[in-house]
Amino acid sequence: MRVVLLALMIAMMLAMLDNMIIGTAMPTIVGELGGLEHLSWVVTSYTLATAASTPIWGKLGDLYGRKGVFLSSIVLFLIGSVLSGMAQDMGQLIAFRAVQGLGAGGLMVGVMAIIGDLIPPRERGKYQGMMAGVMALAMIGGPLVGGTITDHWGWRWTFYINLPLGAVALVAISAVLHLPKKRSEARIDYLGAALLTVGITAIVLVTTWGGTEYAWTSAVIMELIGIGVAALVGFVFWQTRAAEPILPLHIFRSLNFTLMSVIGFIVGFVMFGATLFLPLYQQSVQGASATNSGLLLLPMLGAMLVTSMVAGRVTTQTGRYKVFPLLGGALLVVGLYLLSLMDTETSRLTSGVYMAVVGLGMGCLMQITMLVAQNSVEMKDMGVASSSTTLFRTLGSSFGVAIMGALFNHRVQDVMAERAGALGSQVTEQSAQLDAVSLAKLPEAAREAYQHAVSAGTHGAFLLGAAVAVVALIAAVFVKEVPLKGAGPQKGDAGAAEARAQVSEAV
């Protein structure tokens, strides 16, 4: 079990670490391959492929068995990594990143679903700390590892580094993981998969392009919204008629599953918004370097790790979990409101305390949402439940980055125009997010105005995050504490427990 879990955590790290590592290598990649105007597509193609393939991987695991499907996703991810490292121009890199993203969609779902198969929900809490630890390690270590690899080995090795890790995961899972083989005669719901892919693609493109590549009211964005809505409505309609639907709508009859989907969406919305704007605030206002701004996220990520471990242990020992969504929602609202109070005078210690409060809230919610969602469905729908929860979190992150980003950019540009006049408007005309080099070149007055503008922008973004987190808190109130499967006998069941033990011993 420990070897399997180690392999699963390595696979999970592959999916989470990749974008963090690539981010620091992007300037070098553009310098060699060119194609600066297509830079955003290197990330967008990966995100699109991951989001669109996530539900399909989950359904394939339910139909044909987790092990083979999971190994296939690892192989596809590694093939995409090799091809990306060999890319000769930006077009090839974008295409190969999409291949990589298709594999990544199966990595996260596979890990969650296999853990759901192997470990009863009551015991699953023990391993939450491992998953939270992998997430924290990826967020902190990714930029550092990416910078080191790019400087010493070249940017191509930011992709090739996946090969040894992936090989270890492949060998360990092939040799040690034993799950029952399945072979379903049901046909894959190709129409449902196509409609869902079109709908998700349109949503992600709207959130990625809106306010940056195109104005929110532009014809392109309006057309994408229309296509996305039409595809998703058609998808829901078809799922009620498909013989083997990609996303069985009956799982949403469980109130707890629906609530966990809502909470997961909001966790993604808040978490990725926070990890985007906090380093920007630290670099622009508090004067931190790019490397140090990653390390300065430690209060949030450390608090998230510790709380996730505590929540898992308490859930395992008591079988009770409703307190964690409630507490997590409340802490998230308070922490985000505190972050909205930061200004140009806020010290690193103060901002660290505020971040820790947010981390405590996320630690209470991150893995509990998956645990309760899996506990709310039958074993045959474990993959679908895992992929749906992962998908809602991914979509939440897309919406969070887009909406909080639009609010941030608008506020920065307004404050720069107020404080620095025409110069301020000129400075932020191309982008409201200046890098350290551009910031250093500004006159003192413009730099001071920009610091106030970033403070105002983060105030608006985090205030919006706090308002959205209130929805998670309200959803947590309605969670029903259904006993976790595999929780063992209740008080007074001693006779039944003894009988089960005798049967187990005989078997």
Automatic annotation (TrEMBL):
SUPFAM superfamilies: MFS general substrate transporter (SSF103473). The keyword Cell division does not apply. One of its GO terms (cellular component) is plasma membrane. It is found in: Cell membrane. Its main location: membrane. GO terms for molecular function: transmembrane transporter activity. Residues 488-507 are annotated as: Disordered. Residues 4-484 form the Major facilitator superfamily (MFS) profile domain. The chain crosses the membrane at residues 39-57, 69-88, 94-115, 127-145, 157-178, 190-209, 215-238, 259-281, 293-311, 323-341, 353-372, 460-479. Keywords: Cell membrane, Membrane, Transmembrane, Transmembrane helix, Transport. Pfam families: MFS_1 (PF07690). It is a multi-pass membrane protein. Belongs to the major facilitator superfamily. TCR/Tet family. This is MFS transporter.
